[in-house]
What does this fold into?
Amino acid sequence: MNKVLLFMACMFLGMGIGMLFDHTGAGTILGMGIGLLFIAFAPSTPSSRTLRTDMRKIIGSGRLFLCVIGIGFIFGASRCLV
It folds into this structure.
């Protein structure tokens, strides 16, 4: 699956769930955080179906940066809900 479509799907899914609970902004940010985490761990080739968990590959390819941003969005959205 295209990584951009995966990110957009998570973002809009979060927005829809946020609308159900009257927290559209927080739901969107939460969806973006989850989408960034999915992008970071999505296989780069379509034929590879296993998730990469080798830390050297995560750090070397900038995936650690996406993980940090994604986790930051998730924590930021959870603080908006309280």
Q: What stands out?
A: Residues 26 and 77 are 5 Å apart (CA to CA).
